């Protein structure tokens, strides 16, 4: 039986911990949130811009849910690999638009997580109904698959 010395064990743990600390959060790819909504974010270009698609699992509309386009921007100057971002979803099936802002994190287990806050603006016919036209909420997204792009 091979005996592992304490020095080798400590060295191995240090290398594993360093590897987790070095992991960068990559925004591109397939994501799912805590409500079951899914999105695909394409490649982020050199200016930090990206496009993608969003399929919500929830709606206040009576219309059939459809895949909707998203457009966004990533903060490129973040050097620790956990960038902030924002994107807009122009809903294909309703008179609403949602803006998301958030940050891409690598959690303590090494998993990528998107923490977001959103504002959803719905159309109203009268300025007196403006008070009920904007909703606010939060979502947590995780990778839909373990595959990274």
Strand order of the largest sheet: 1-2-3-4-5-6-7-8
The level of helicity is: 10-25%
Topology as H/E string? HEEEEEEEE
Q: Residue-averaged pLDDT, rounded?
A: 85
Q: What is the CA-based Rg, rounded?
A: 20 Å
Q: Quick one: biggest sheet?
A: 8 strands, antiparallel, barrel
Bulk shape: elongated
**Poorly predicted parts:** 7-11, 13-18
Q: Report the β-strand fraction as a percent range.
A: 35-45%
Structural category is mainly beta
* Count of DSSP-assigned helices: 1
Q: How many angstroms separate the termini?
A: 41 Å
- The tally of beta strands, per DSSP, is 8
Describe this structure in words.
The protein has 149 residues and is mainly beta. The protein has one helix spanning 6-22, and strands spanning 29-33, 38-41, 49-55, 68-74, 84-90, 96-106, 112-122, 134-143. The protein has one helix and eight strands; from the N terminus they run H-E-E-E-E-E-E-E-E. An eight-stranded antiparallel barrel has the order 1-2-3-4-5-6-7-8.
């Amino acid at each position: 039986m091979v005996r592992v010395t304490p020095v080798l064990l400590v060295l191995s743990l240090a290398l594993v911990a360093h590897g987790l600390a070095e992991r960068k959060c990559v925004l591109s790819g397939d994501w799912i949130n805590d409500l079951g909504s899914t999105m695909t974010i394409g490649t982020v270009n050199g200016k930090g811009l990206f496009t993608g698609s969003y399929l919500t699992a929830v709606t206040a509309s009576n219309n059939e849910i459809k895949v909707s386009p998203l457009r966004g921007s990533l903060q490129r100057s973040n050097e620790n690999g956990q960038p902030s971002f924002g994107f807009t979803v122009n809903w294909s099936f309703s008179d609403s638009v949602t803006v998301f802002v958030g940050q891409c994190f690598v959690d303590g287990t090494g998993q990528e997580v998107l923490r977001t806050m959103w504002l959803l603006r719905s159309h109203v016919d009268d300025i007196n109904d403006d008070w009920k036209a904007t909703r606010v909420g939060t979502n947590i997204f995780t990778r839909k698959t373990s595959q990274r792009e």
